[in-house]
Amino acid sequence: MKGHLIIFSAPSGSGKSTIVQWLMKEHPELNMYFSISCTSRQPRGTEQNGVEYFFISPEEFKEKIARDEFIEYEEVYKDRYYGTLKSQVEKQLNAGQNVIFDVDVKGGVNIKKFYGKDALSIFIQPPSIQELRKRLEGRATDTPEAIETRLAKAAYEMTFSNQFDVIVINDDLSEAEEKAYTLINNFINANK
Question: Distance between CA 24 and CA 7 in Å, rounded?
Answer without folding.
Answer: 14
